[in-house]
Amino acid sequence: MHMIPYSVLDLAVVTEESNPKEAIERSRELAVHVEELGYNRFWMAEHHNMEHIASSATSVLLGHMAEATSKIRIGSGGIMLPNHSPYIIAEHFGTLATMYPGRIDLGLGRAPGTDQVTAHAIRPNRMQEVYNFPDNVAQLQKYLSKENKGKVRAFPGEGTEIPIWILGSSTDSAHLAAKLGLPYAFASHFAPQQLMDAIRIYRQEFQPSKQLDEPYVMAGINVIAADTTEQAEYLSTSTKQLFVGVITGERNPLPPPVDDISEVIPIQHQMALNQMLAYSFVGDKTQISETLIGFLKETGVDELITASYIFDHKQRLKSHRLFAEIMQEISIPA
């Protein structure tokens, strides 16, 4: 029997009647809190042109989180590499790894993390860089390696050999993660449909690398834990409203919970919402534990990373505490 590592994905979500500064400070408080609770990683994700997300300058925020903590791994879930020059990312993360050695993760995705108009504003030739993604990952690995003795070298960065992860929400990323022999994080917290296929492909095709001997999968899940299932369901109405905004393109700050979700969510969005949130664990400790064991046995994932969109910060901290207690109490046959 072994305990599954558990981690946090945070977007510095701005709530209604709040602002980005407060959102960032809440994220920092959360990072300190979850470190004390035994969480393995605290990751933040790159998004742009979204009023409710303050984590756009991801590497800057990761420094802020690493400075407040001492042992939890801090990383990107992810950096959208086609938005950037691999060389600059090598310098940014090389700097982080120099300041906080042995604690930095670099998760890479290829989606824009925004709409197409903003994607063009970020980098006009971005689509070409999407095609170059595998080569750019290799280039980044080279810059961070001890062996790089080319004309272009990353200082700080060279020799840090920061663990690189491939992020994905479809089977495309599974093939690449397997081919490169890198750990694989799947965004099943909002794109659950291809999780099982992606895991199967990744494990079947995995080729050992300098970084990793065997396949390693981390799956994203939504978690809202409370003392009672009724309270957790109530808190989850904020998440549901946020995700309907994703479906409709309305990116408003995270709203407070409501008593009757059917009054604020049009019926035509219910099915899409239920599909997106298929891997959501909402309830008291007993209920979450029962459904989570089933998920862990079905997927065989090596680690979980949790997203928790809860309006009330104290309730969010409490949800993470309850989830840590769940994870410390359950174990899966090795």
In words, what does this structure look like?
The chain is α/β, with parallel strands linked by helices. The protein has one domain (6-224, 295-329): Luciferase-like domain (TIM Barrel, Alpha-Beta Barrel), CATH 3.20.20. Helix content is 44%, strand content 15%. An eight-stranded parallel β-barrel has the order 1-2-3-4-5-6-7-9, surrounded by seven helices. Strand 6, helix 8 and strand 7 form a beta-alpha-beta unit. Helix 7 runs parallel beside helix 8 (195-205).
Question: How confident is the prediction overall: mean pLDDT?
Answer: 94
What is the number of domains?
A: 1
Q: State the distance separating the first and last CA atoms.
A: 5 Å
| Counted beta strands | 9
Strand content: 5-15%
* Helical percentage: 40-55%
Structural class: alpha/beta
CATH architecture: Alpha-Beta Barrel
Q: Main sheet: which strands, in order across?
A: 1-2-3-4-5-6-7-9
CATH H-tier superfamily = Luciferase-like domain
What's the helix and strand layout?
Layout: E1 6-10, H1 20-36, E2 41-44, H2 58-68, E3 73-80, H3 86-99, E4 104-109, H4 116-122, H5 126-131, H6 133-144, E5 164-168, H7 171-180, E6 184-186, H8 195-205, E7 217-225, H9 229-248, H10 270-276, E8 280-283, H11 285-299, E9 303-307, H12 313-329
Parallel strand pairs: 1-2, 1-9, 2-3, 3-4, 4-5, 5-6, 6-7, 7-8, 7-9
Helix pairs in contact: 1-2, 1-12, 3-6, 7-8, 11-12
